[in-house]
Specification:
16% strand; MethylDNA_cys_MeTrfase_DNAb; DNA damage; 29% helix; DNA repair; 6 helices; alpha/beta
């Protein structure tokens, strides 16, 4: 990811760090800034793949591999059973107001809970904007930190997920004991 916005000496925000976390589901990369705010995350071996998911308004010029910090520790804690850990890390994404409202609403959906696209639209303040609520999931670059895997269709089936329906199902199964849900 280069030459998107020319960096200047005064632009200390021109760089994002990245780190790989080894998880039972495979390598998980997190892109973050100096404050450990997450810009993108997911199961991939390519930080460039994730960088391409970051909204153009937030694009950075450089990616630098860094030592794991709070964001990576939250992923490890999630896999160790602290299913709320990713929700305690700040996330920065950019879209229209409704999509951003949906992302904020998703961060309030606790582990083991599931919401439909309709319920997500309602939580974000526009009950008839079901398709836009689905777009919030499609455009979410910060998986786990913005838990779009917790959104299901109105009939309870899984719907889509950037990292595959099998992974979505595994995440929901991992979280089910948090609320005593049968899988």
């Amino acid at each position: 990811m280069t030459d998107r916005h020319p960096a200047t000496v005064a632009d200390h925000r021109a760089e994002l760090g990245w780190t790989v976390v080894t998880t039972p589901d495979g390598p998980f990369i997190v892109l973050f800034d100096d404050a450990q705010t997450v810009y993108a995350s997911g199961w991939t071996e390519s930080p460039d793949y994730l960088a391409n998911l970051v909204a153009p308004a937030l694009c950075r010029d450089y990616l630098t591999e860094r030592a794991p910090g709070a964001a990576a520790e939250a992923v490890l804690a999630y896999y160790d059973g602290d299913l709320d850990a990713p929700s305690r890390i700040a996330v920065r994404q950019s879209a229209g107001p409704f999509i951003e409202d949906c992302w904020a609403a998703l961060r309030q959906v606790g582990p083991g809970r599931r919401v439909t696209y309709t319920q997500l639209a309602e939580c974000a303040g526009r009950p008839t904007a079901v398709r836009a609520a689905a777009q919030c999931c499609v455009r979410n670059a910060a998986t786990l930190f913005v838990p779009c895997h917790r959104v299901v269709r109105s009939d309870g089936t899984l719907g889509g997920y950037r990292y595959g329906l099998e992974r979505k199902g595994e995440l929901l199964a991992r979280e089910a004991p948090a609320v005593g849900v049968a899988v």
